[in-house]
Amino acid sequence: MKEYKSNLPEIVLKYKKGTSNKVKIQTSQDAYKLFKEFYDQDTFQICESTIVLFLNASNNTIGWTKHTQGGLDSCIIDVRLILATALQCGARSIMLSHNHPSGNTTPSGNDNSMTGKLKRACEAVEITLLDHIIATEESYYSYVDNGLI
Predict the structure, then answer these.
(1) Helix or strand holding residue 94 (H, E)
(2) pLDDT tens digits for range 16-52
């Protein structure tokens, strides 16, 4: 391994090996079922969290990340961090999900605004935002299924 003499910090992308095979996402139902596996079930009905899936050109998963853990009814989404991760792992598309602990799947004005902002940012770097899923314990809301993406 080559050793560099610079004191400047090196930035690297690190994958944690998973135990399952890649998953092909074909429908919002597929995405919802997969996203539910990544939420912390101890806090799912208490506070909001955001999960991002990164996919290749065939809509097969590359990997996922827990982007944020928020409060009772909101969480901060940083578009720059999502895109930085997508670019580093070579994703062709992404899917976003956050939960609503209230059980109400209706998107808020902030949800709609952030989704539009993320979609425009993705387009600028030739990455497709495939869907934004709002997850609850019993059901989900898909921006694509409702014609909003």
Answers:
(1) strand 93-99
(2) 766 667 889 999 999 999 999 888 887 788 888 999 9
